[in-house]
Write the structure tokens for this entry.
Amino acid sequence: MKYQHTSFQKPDAYHALQIPVYQSVAFEFDTAEEMEAAFTGKSADYCYSRITNPTVQFFEERVRNITGATSVTALNSGMAAISNTLIALASAGSNIVTSPHLFGNTYALMASTLASFGVETRFCNLNDPEEVKANTDENTCALFLEVITNPQLEIADLKMLSEIMHRAGVPLVADTTVVPFCAWSAKEFGVDIEIISSTKYISGGATSLGGLILDYGTFDWKASKKLNALAGQHGRDAFTFKLRREIHRNLGAYMTPQVAYQQALGIESLSLRFERASSSCLKLAGQLKTVPGIVSVNYTGLPENPFHTLSEKQFGPLPGAMLTFDLESRSRCFAFLNHLKLIKRATNLFDNKSLIIHPASTIFGTFSEAVRREMDIRDTTIRLSVGLEDVQILLKDIADSLNE
Ligand SMILES: *Cc1c(COP(=O)(O)O)cnc(C)c1O
């Protein structure tokens, strides 16, 4: 990880080793001329913290150094990152191609919020290239996917999809929250815009909400109906220009300095935490298969998993710290959850503590049964996010609760 090489944008007055939290809304100017230059984009001086802030910019720069993105934008939640991206790309009459296997709020953003502004979403099976091609047309503004869906744990072939999309002149936008950039490179697999809920691994133990938009500068925006005019002037930076000069300012969801400080610190231990939690998850997945009462275990790191080969090719041997398992019935799931002593009944992923949830009755609890079926959310599934505790202690908590 190259985070050590990220220096402050400007030297701190006291040579602080850690980035100071510049908790200031506005920034002062010596002259009216400098003020004009900053406001019209001719200088990069800070004006107002809804637009840029030194602490937040430091965090963005740290992510840029590690990933090789040409630009990084930090927002105040993963959903803010997703909505800013889609609003920058879509317009009335355009469509988004995606899978119905999506994070609940992302699904609702597309199926309800964006739909009410005339943006159509085409839900299809991303593992079927013919279906993807059939759903893509001249009004498709993005292919959006999650690299490992939650809680189905389905993986799309990124190289295959990016080739199809690039031939059609459509950017590949991927939510990579479940496998962070310390483990693999989304750019290598053809992702043009990467979106991350930094609330999860990056925040360093569920300290704060945050979201990131990474632009790899790989997409030729001349192919985009909405951005082709900007592409004339800004080339491959047209998306970032639209995002930074218009969308994120108008939506007002920029990351705050205190959060940027916590998440910049989170990055320093990201790869250590990721490796520990995911190798525990792999060990646990293997052991849970033999625990009485567990009907099946789903984790793409297991050799018998149908997505294992693709998982290894894209993410390496450790595809994150989330697994699911199925019990016999919904009532067995509830009784099991109620007997746990150590593992926390809570939503969220990739805290330092292990967290467990019954997705059908919680995250997807207000969705209709038909939608749950379309999204493959079963009543018998438990989702576990593995933390930094000892594996044997976690296993014992699970086995004991199933025995009660
Ligand atoms: C949590 C999550 C989000 C939303 O992130 P927030 O920071 O909660 O807004 C989006 N996508 C995935 C895959 C997530 O796990």
The chain has two domains: 3-266, 271-403.
